[in-house]
Amino acid sequence: MLRPGELEIAKNAPPAACSAESAQQYTRWLATHHYENFNVASWLLPKELHQHFYNLYAYCRWADDLGDEVPDTQRALELLDWWEQELDACYQGRPSHAVFVALRETIVAKEIPRQPFADLLKAFRQDQTVKRYANWDAVLDYCIYSANPVGRLVLYLCGYRDEARQKLSDATCTALQLANFWQDVGRDLEKGRIYIPLDIGAQHSVSEDNIMSRHFSESYVALMKDLIARTRILFDEGLPLAQQVEGKLRIDLEMFSRGGIAVLDAIEAQGFDTLNRRPAISKTRQIMLLGRVLLTQVLPSEQPPVKRRQATPALVHPAIPNAAPELDSASIAESYGHCHQIARAARSNFYYAFYLLPRPKRDGLAALYAFMRLVDDVADEGADIGAKQRGLAKWRTALDDAVNGSEYTVNGSSALARPSVYGSTEVLSALVDTMRRFNMPARYLHDLISGAEMDLTVKTYPTFDRLKEYCYRVAGTVGLTCTHVFGFSDPRALDLAEKLGLAFQLTNIIRDVREDAALGRVYIPDEDLARYNVSPQDFAKNEATLGVRELLRFEGDRAWQLYEEGAELLDLIDADSRGTLWLLVHTYNALLARIESLDFAVFGERVRLNKAEKMLFIARAKFGRHTRDNVLEKRDSDWRRAGGAGGRPSRWLTLAVAYGCSNSGLISAAVQRPTSCRMASTWTIASTSPSAAAPTSRIFTSVSAPPIK
User: Fold this and answer.
1) Domains of the chain: which residue ranges?
2) Which of 169, 421, 670, 676 is most buried (most C-beta within 10 Å)?
3) Three-state SS across 267-327?
4) Does the global pTM surpass 0.85?
5) Superfamily of domain 16-116
6) Residues 678-703: pLDDT tens digits?
7) Which of 434, 458, 429, 457 is nearest to 444 (CA)?
8) 414 Cβ contact list (under 8 Å, min separation 6)
9) Contact indicator for 255, 40 with CB cutoff of 8 Å
10) Domain 130-280 carries which CATH code?
11) Interval 625-654 mean pLDDT
């Protein structure tokens, strides 16, 4: 039926009655070479559905091209009739065309009815003959055939056949089709089509002639506002569908909805003139859409403050006296609520990592984070070192009082009139509850305060052992407290947690060496500076000298060894905590790998993780496997480095996945505000604005990481 050269996509098609294997290879090629969004779909969707999606896509793509790529209307209608005959033959068990040979496997496996396939053809035929739509109902009727069948086919493919989900899908698909109409008014005019309902246009004094002549006016603005408002209602009706499906499909569905809404936003942003300019969603915006959707799947909707979980007697640590008074559940719940508010306000990606954990552990990390954040703020405020030291001393007292029960919160009031420090009343109830539930020694938190105190007065470190002491206090302690929350039974876990904390801190020190030196701090030990004949003044230069690079390689080797030794922790913590630990370790280690790939050129643009990479890492942590084998970047043994074995430059790929982006110029992550105390959020991936008042080489960091493999 099809003439030679009549359709571009037919060039690579196998002959009629080909094998199923050849047919599937063709549909796979067609989907992955012609559908710019399919890289995303094939990653997000379950692997066992990939081929079925290829087959569905091939059917829709062929039908669309038969209607749109054949210039003669009569010939297009003939070809659409031929395509429906091929569809009938497929359902009769005798497929001929390669697309239907592949599609037959999907139809049988998923028990898909004929109707949605036939409905699509009705819409393609209608496009050949209907060029105007008199009213809103007529446009919606067209969408029933042009858009809604696609959503229903996807639901069938994923095992959903109920009417309730189909209605939600219909609302979303219709909204997507309408958003495309309002976006493509100018393009459709080139094809002689107007999808704007003429009666609604007339209500806003916009005639068919106005549209044809591309006359933009305030009346057209009012018309677009009306149409967009109607479309948003349909998107809102369909949004609940994403929460009624399982697994990765919900990400795909929400991406479609959010993408359509973003199109409407883009129309508004450009002043509603779709007659003369097609609004587009920037690659940055596309990436952020994907990231937002990924995070909504990692981050559950807000829930009321948690209720008190009674401490298990076996978890009560001797450091927390059993005689300490029990607080009422309302006070505990309110305190956890405050902790989550503090963590959210910090805008740290560490907070999103919490949501890979079950709720009790999320609450525990929120309490730890809030305490560390507030202690850190004391060390960061103002220039009066004495005032900062007094503030940290107050936190020590407040912590001891809360742990020992000599000061505690009852119905929002302090039982004893002790001198207080900002935030202690709000967070310490939750912190003590966390310490009890997860058998956490108070000395870790006291050591962490000691780290903050060191940063107020210590500017250099003579030996690596001295630096290790500092790193233990500001980073190792955070690893230890987090590991108690993660859950473990093997005592080796604590030693490994310390090693990972030290590895993270060394990574930060390497990356931020120049910024820290500019603020009067040199964290690299004096003995190492002397070994490589480097002076602190070398860190003030515009470019890293050879000696500085060799010095940083040496410190990098130390960090790599610690990562390799500490990676075993992944096997020793509770299974429900491994996604969070995997995300943190992989991200920090990837930062070090990127620094190596740049030959330790850390004096220029800050090395960091861009937003798309962060979102993809979160998704991989949520949906992927978490093993010692994939938590670290691999290092090539032939990467020549002074001082021993080295690490390869990471093979960084340009990510071309976010909602149709290809070779996208991915945006850089914002940097967590550097502060004068290098403690608190070890293992965090942070993202607020920088402050010029304090060192950048602190544990709050924005990082770079490799793409999904």
Assistant:
1) 16-116, 130-280, 313-635+643-660
2) 169
3) HHHCCCCCCCCCCCCCHHHHHHHHHHHHHHHHCCCCCCCCCCCCCCHHHCCCCCCCCCCCC
4) no
5) Farnesyl Diphosphate Synthase (1.10.600.10)
6) 333 334 333 323 333 333 333 333 33
7) 434
8) 407, 408, 420, 425
9) yes
10) 1.10.600.10
11) 53
